[in-house]
Design brief:
The protein is mostly helical and 276 residues long. It has 13 helices and 2 strands; from the N terminus they run H-H-E-E-H-H-H-H-H-H-H-H-H-H-H. It has a two-stranded antiparallel ribbon with strand order 1-2. Helix 1 packs across helix 2, helix 5 runs antiparallel to helix 7 and helix 6 packs antiparallel against helix 8. The radius of gyration is 21 Å and the shape is globular.
Length: 276
């Protein structure tokens, strides 16, 4: 078939193919540490990848006209599925040094989220504040320890430091999951909303750091981490706001929220598949 006429007769499918190619190339460049310069608080590669992914999602959701066939609709759905499987930042493989730097880059967000938790009790009803305080006890020490380990790993990305981070990030994740379950018992809707939002902000950063640690861990180590996770993601998912999580990830990487939504969904999928 003549490629020119094929593009003319199937513009949406051709555009989807082009966007897939853009996201694929951007993913490869990102894995190799090629940024093509800065764009806002992120990189040009991340920006291009995020925009292409967002456009692909919009294209896949376009309404079909009367002349469209079920085959073309299915094909666009397949393009969207492929996009979900393409490499994106924070869950794709890269060097230990790059991962260590990314973990350290997340530490200010973690410290800020924990500080918000510390001040949230004042916003709750008097009867609810003690429940929240008990649920989040230990967040400060857990955060400080993980930040310290992340910086040590950046300075010396050794197996021994990685083992400490594997244990600590898993422990912290379990603390967050337990806190979410306890906060869900708060009867006041206003207090519960404040409590869950504050805890999830911490959990989003911890989840990102967990994904990064997983990316440089062996399958055996990940299995060991998962075996220590007694409160699974499925138990706390009803209390999570994935839109808020995507906003935090998008702000950190300087990328479109649509791209971050895919990253959050992929990270959750990886955690479930790994047994978390």
């Amino acid at each position: 078939m003549n490629p020119i006429s094929n593009i003319w007769n199937h513009p949406k499918t051709s555009a989807a193919g082009l966007l897939i190619a853009v996201v694929t190339i951007a993913g490869v460049l990102s894995q190799q540490g090629i940024t093509l310069g800065a764009a806002g608080t992120g990189t040009v590669v991340t920006l291009v990848s995020g925009l292409a992914t967002a456009l692909l999602g919009l294209l896949a959701r376009d309404p079909v006209n009367a002349s469209s066939t079920s085959g073309s609709t299915a094909k666009l759905g397949a393009w969207a599925l492929i996009a979900l499987l393409l490499p994106l930042p924070f869950v794709s493989g890269c060097s230990c040094t790059a991962v260590a730097q990314d973990i350290v880059n997340w530490t200010p967000a973690l410290q800020s989220a924990v500080a918000t938790v510390d001040s949230t009790a004042a916003l709750l009803a008097p009867v609810d504040a003690p429940i929240f305080a008990a649920a989040t006890t230990g967040f400060d020490s857990a955060s400080n320890l993980l930040v310290s380990q992340a910086k040590e790993y950046l300075a010396n990305p050794s197996a021994s430091v990685l083992a400490l981070m594997q244990a600590q990030v898993t422990t912290f994740q379990q603390q967050v999951n337990a806190a979410l379950l306890q906060a869900a018992r708060i009867t006041s809707s206003a207090s519960q909303q404040h409590a869950l939002a504050a805890i999830q902000a911490v959990g989003t950063v911890v989840a990102a750091m967990l994904a990064l640690v997983q990316s440089v861990s062996s399958k055996a180590d990940v299995a060991q981490m998962a075996s220590q996770s007694t409160i699974k993601l499925a138990a706390v998912r009803p209390y999570l706001d994935e839109g808020k999580a995507a906003e935090i990830v998008a702000r950190h990487y300087g990328e479109p929220v649509a791209s971050a939504q895919i990253q959050v969904a992929r990270a959750e999928q990886y955690e479930v598949m790994a047994g978390f």
